Amino acid sequence: MTKTLLVASAGGHLDELMIHIRRLGIDERQAVWVTSPTAQTESLLDGRDVIWAPRVGSGEVGKAVRGVPAALDIHRRVRPDLVVSTGALFSTPHLLAAALMGCETWFIDSATRVAGPSSTGRFARRFTRARLFAQGEGWGDPAWERVPSVFDAFESTAAPADGAPVLDRVTVSLGSELWPFPRAVDRIRELLPGAEITWQVGVTEYPDGEGLLPQWVPADELRAAIRVSDLVVMHAGVGSVLVALDEGKVPVILPRRMRHGEMVDDHQTEVAAVLAERGLAISVDPDELDRAHLERAAGLRARRRAEFEKQG
Is the pLDDT of residue 187 over 90? Predict the structure, then answer.
C-alpha cells in the first residue's frame, strides 16, 4: 500500500483535504496527517495517525522557513511514498522537504482561489515538482489539472414556508484566522439581541458580561449546534461553509476585508461572490448586514447533489 503524508493547515484547508482524499482514492489506513493542534483539528482527527506541528499563519514566512528542518525530520521518520496537501503557508516546509527527498507530491489549491493560484500554489509550481490541481474552472494555465470544486457537491432549495423564518437559535462561526473580526460580532449582536447564539469567534476577544464570548468550540460540538440552528452566520472560510452546507444550512457569510485588518488579502470576497452566485450562501459585508439577509438565509436549505452522495 502507498504510505501517504497528508498536510494541511488547520481550518478550511484541512476540511478540503478530507474531502479530496476520498475523491482521489487515497487509502487513509496508510496515511499520516500533519497539521497544527486546535479544538477543531483534535476533534476532527481523533483516532487518526497525526503529527502535530506549530501553526504557521498567513504572512508568517519566517516561521515557515524555520519549520523546514522539522519537516525534513518528519519525512525521514515517516518515509512517505506520496505527499498530498491543500496548503496553506503551513505546508510549504513539507512541500520543500518532499522535493528534497524526491517524494511524489500532489498539491490541490484551495476553492477560495478563484482568480489565480495562492502564494503557496505559486511556490509549489516554482520550487517543487508537485502535480498541481485547481478546483473548478481553473485559471487557464495548463500546468494545473482541474478537479471538481468542493462546492460542486451542493445545491440550495427553498425551505418549507409557514410564515416568516424563525431566528431563535443561531450559530456564529468566525473560523481560525489570526485576525480578529469584531465588526461581525457587533452587527450580529445588534440584529439578534434576543436570539440564543452559539458563538465561535476565534481570536476575536469580545467582552460578554464578566468574560469573553466563546472563542473555540470542538468541531463535533460546532457541527451539532449548526445542525439544530435556524440560522448560521460565518466568515467566508471554506471549512466553515462546508460544514454548514453539509448540515443542510445556507449560511450568511461575512467576508473579511484586508482594509479593516481582518485578513492578509481580499480572497474571501472572491469566494463569497462565487458561493452567492451558486445560491449556496447569502454574502454581505458586516456593515451592510440587515434582518432581511438573515431571514433570506433562514428560508433556504442546502442539500447534496445526487451524483455526490457517495463521494463525501
Answer: yes
